[in-house]
Amino acid sequence: MELTEKTLSSRTVFEGRIVTVKLDSAQLPNGVQASREVVEHPGGVCVLALQEDGTVPLVRQFRYPLGHTMLELPAGKLEAGEDPLAAAIRELGEEVGLEPGDMTDLGHIYVSPGFCTEKLHMYLARDVKSVPVHPDEDEFLEIVYMSFEQLTDKVMSGEIRDAKTVATVLKTRALLGL
Question: E strands, 19-67, where?
Fold first, then answer.
């Protein structure tokens, strides 16, 4: 069965600092024409830093679209042309003041493929050492430490609902055989 949709036209309706929104016209496999809204995003990274004592640093920050704070793993947006590994190392230093000795690539996920192009790269950092924290000037966050076990429990109970954190924690748990 053919599932591919063909783009007939594409119009940019918004260009922002982070995303571009397009309104496309697409031909469906059955020949019918349909509208498609596409949010183009440069992609991002998420890092779980497992320290020697078994604790993991997270950040609590206000998420404007949701109107409340969320507890998340350190993460950030890729800059144009930036290598995901380099971005993960940068974000870990900026947000929680850690530099990894070892980074394991946990793969990537598409955050919401029904309308968004964002590809999120996940990493496990180990053998970390402290460096000065230096968040972006528009970034206000609180660093929270908890055991990997407690973090996993909060993911499984639904207390932590941030998709990138959930996916990274569960992939780490599987990798470590826990």
Answer: 20-27, 33-40, 44-49, 55-63
> Domain-by-domain residue ranges, the chain?
6-40, 44-176
Residues acting as catalytic residues: 137
- Cα–Cα distance for residue pair 47/169, rounded to 1 Å: 9
DSSP run (H or E) holding 170:
helix 163-176
Encode pLDDT of 18-48 as tens digits: 999 999 999 999 999 999 999 999 999 999 9
Cα torsion angle, 133, 108, 106, 169, sign: positive
The letter for the amino acid at 28 is: L
Pick the CATH number of 44-176 from 3.30.1330.10, 3.40.47.40, 3.90.79.10, 3.30.1360.30: 3.90.79.10
Q: Which residues of 121-143 are buried (b: 16+ CB within 10 A; e: fewer)?
A: bbbbbeebeeeeeebeeeeebee
Is the separation of the CB atoms in 45 and 84 below 8 Å?
A: yes
Residue whose structure tokens are 């192009």: 117
DSSP character at residue 116: B
102 forms beta bridges with 126
Packing angle of the helix pair 148-157, 163-176 (nearest 10 deg): 130
In which residue are the tokens 């870990």 written? 92
Amino acid sitting at position 39: V
Give the predicted TM-score (pTM) of the model. 0.93
Give me the residues paired with residue 178 across strands: none
